[in-house]
Design brief:
The protein contains 13 helices and no strands. It has helices at about 10-20, 30, 35-55, 60-80, 90-100, 105, 115-120, 120-130, 150-165, 175-195, 200-220, 225-245, 255-274.
Length: about 270
């Protein structure tokens, strides 16, 4: 006789679990006391963990992390339903309708495919949606709608893209690189003429990072992805240094900066060979 295959849980099961966790009488005390504001940081964290699994090419991990991220959507929807604002089905309906509406070249008229790829059709559709909701799209800043809670580098690029759409942008990379050198000089000057804790140093450092984001935009690079790659490289090489020292029964604190710097160069050469 064939073994019984356990029934897989489905979305209805997950919704029921979340409703049970939030039950004021029989639910989990921790879950019951949560709010949109307290859960929001977990939502952001889970999105980063999804990105991390992808970066590590860990598909098994990705399955788990996508589940954790889905739980966040279910969590927020459950809290909204308790306030009679909307339910999970409304979230699904809204995003499905939005994707159909914003892809007319797929769901309505295939001849608009070129228009979608070469014009601001997506943004025009978004503006039409706002107008239908009664939102004023003719007044306000071109920078409105870029969330302040975004990672700063990503937000910098989005702000710059918004400004570029209305003509506030350099024509190519050359003046951007000149601006980069200018901001670097200003940071050096602030460091030289001020105490290291001075707020002006932080301001100049921020200006430098903002221009770096602009450099990435002109190069069509994702600055967050580039920095994640640099972080991964640093971790990889520093762990190599630790492993070499460990073979000698030592830790980094038992070594000198000169020795570790030499090992760093060795790790770099080893990667280049590979």
């Amino acid at each position: 006789m064939a073994e019984d295959v356990p029934k897989k849980h489905d979305l209805d099961d997950l919704l029921a679990v979340m409703a049970r966790l939030r039950d004021p009488e029989s639910g989990c005390p921790w879950d019951v006391k949560q709010s949109f504001a307290t859960i929001a940081p977990y939502t952001i964290e889970e999105a980063y963990e999804v990105a991390d699994a992808i970066a590590r090419d860990d598909l098994d991990g990705l399955k788990d992390e996508l589940g954790d991220l889905l739980l966040q959507v279910v969590y927020h929807a459950q809290m909204a339903s308790e306030q009679s604002r909307f339910a999970f089905d409304d979230v699904v309906d809204a995003i499905t309708a939005k994707m159909i509406r914003r892809h007319p070249h797929v769901f309505e008229d295939a001849s608009r495919r070129e228009e979608f790829m070469t014009t601001d059709l997506w943004d025009r559709i978004k503006a039409e949606e706002k107008a239908e909701r009664g939102e004023d799209v003719g007044v306000g800043s071109s920078l409105d709608g870029v969330p302040a809670g975004m990672p700063a580098l990503i937000r910098a690029v989005k702000l710059q893209k918004r400004a570029a759409k209305v003509g506030f942008d350099w024509p190519d990379l050359v003046p951007v690189m000149a601006k980069l050198e200018e901001e670097l000089a200003e940071l050096k000057d602030a460091i030289e003429h001020n105490e290291k804790s001075d707020a002006s140093i932080a301001e100049e450092f921020g200006d430098l990072l903002f221009v770096m984001a602009n450099v990435a935009r002109h190069l069509r690079l994702d600055p967050e992805a580039a920095l994640r790659g640099a972080n991964a490289k640093f971790v990889r090489r520093f762990r190599w240094i630790e492993s070499v020292l460990a073979e000698d029964g030592r830790k980094p604190q038992d070594s000198t900066l000169e020795e570790m710097d030499a090992l760093w160069d060795a790790a770099k050469r080893d990667e280049t060979k590979g």
